[in-house]
What does this fold into?
Amino acid sequence: MRSRYSAYALGLGEYLVATSARAPGPGEAVELSAWARTVGWVGLTVLERQQGGPADATGVVHFVARYVEASAVVSLEERSQFDRDAGRWRYLEGTATTSRQKLGRNEPCPCGSGKKVKQCHA
Ligand SMILES: [Zn+2]
It folds into this structure.
């Protein structure tokens, strides 16, 4: 489940599509990759897990993922539902809420690039 965050951070749209129960739209993997590479990934905090263990067929992960986009840190909070398909976890659905915290143009970008916000994810 955590691997999907890593796939976002690396811009691996094919993996995201392959680990989702929903059939992808045309070009969805390419669009996901492109978007994921334009934002700066800051981190993942798992707040709670329910089930999702070796003996379970379903699982829920409540998390906050943070990324930098348009000079703001976006915090995306979601409870994601997963199930197991032929032994592999796949994403079913989740309801996400986002909040944005504006950054100063001359602050160091939280994506870890070492650049100022205005030179990085402005
Ligand atoms: Zn950045």
Summary: The CA atoms of residues 37 and 89 lie 24 Å apart.
